[in-house]
Amino acid sequence: DIVMTQSPAILSVSPGERATLSCRASQSVDNNLAWYQQRPGQAPRLLMQGASSRATGVPARFSGSGSGTDFTLIISSLQSEDFAVYFCQQYSVWPLTFGGGTKVEI
Amino acid sequence: QVQLQESGPRLVKPSETLSLTCTVSGVSFSSHYWSWIRQSPGKGLEWLGFVDSSGPARYDPSLRSRLIISADTSKSQVSLRLSSVTVADTGVYYCASLRGYAYGFDSWGQGTLVTVSS
């Protein structure tokens, strides 16, 4: 199975600051990578797929990059609603696998 | 707007079978793939498998011997049956949709917490 490793586990930032989240795959997944946001008590929400394509309704302050094994999600200016847990997921190879998550907190 | 609603027993005894149903609305059932994903504190998010309206289901190999996912197009429902459960199968079970193999999960149900306990 492809192991997805996210770092850091916890990211402490202030509103208005920039947040940079990393995701690394144990082998190449090309650009077959998605990012999700999960707020407390809610289901995950798709933010990004194809590593860099924002899902419908996702604000432009979210951007994704990377290919192969190393990926980045950037939130350019954190809003209060962005404090949540973020997961990456590869869909290049079955079984589909998720990273352990990065919690973005104040 | 795609809506997915999971339903089924919240408490299952060890060694028994966990059965859940996901009812889909707001989208053509045959135009998407339908998946089950679970989340637990110990294992994080785990993809369990998916099915479409016409082809065979695909499963996580580690669960293949215990898991059946099926689709009922006439009812716009996706079902999950996980046999011989243990406490390790406790978690929140989500139904989710995707447009195809090369896409992320674009809609999710609210999830249902299933506890395995005697």
Structural features, described:
The complex is a heterodimer of chains A (106) and B (118). Chain A has 106 residues and is mainly β. Chain A has no helices and eleven strands. In chain A, strands 2, 4, 5, 6, 9, 10 and 11 form a seven-stranded mixed β-sheet that branches. The model of chain A has no long low-confidence stretch (mean pLDDT 96). In chain B, a hairpin with a 3-residue loop joins strand 4 (33-40) and strand 5. In chain B, the strands form two sheets. In chain B, strands 2, 4, 5, 6, 9, 10 and 11 form a seven-stranded mixed β-sheet that branches. Chain B is mainly beta and 118 residues long. In chain B, 0% of the residues lie in helices and 51% in strands. Chain A binds chain B through residues 32, 34, 36, 42-46, 48-49, 55, 87, 89, 91, 94-101, and chain B through 44-47, 58, 60-62, 94, 101-111.
Low-confidence stretches of chain A: none
SSE order of chain A, one letter for each helix or strand: EEEEEEEEEEE
How is the main sheet of chain B built?
Answer: 7 strands, mixed
> What's the assembly state of these chains?
heterodimer
Rg over alpha carbons of chain A = 13 Å
Largest interface: A-B, 22 and 20 residues
Structural class of chain B: mainly beta
Query: Which spans of chain B have pLDDT < 50 for at least 5 consecutive residues?
Result: none
- Outline of chain B, from the CA principal axes? globular
Rg on CA atoms of chain B, Å: 13 Å
H/E topology pattern of chain B: EEEEEEEEEEE
Rounded mean pLDDT score of chain A: 96
Helix/strand class of chain A? mainly beta
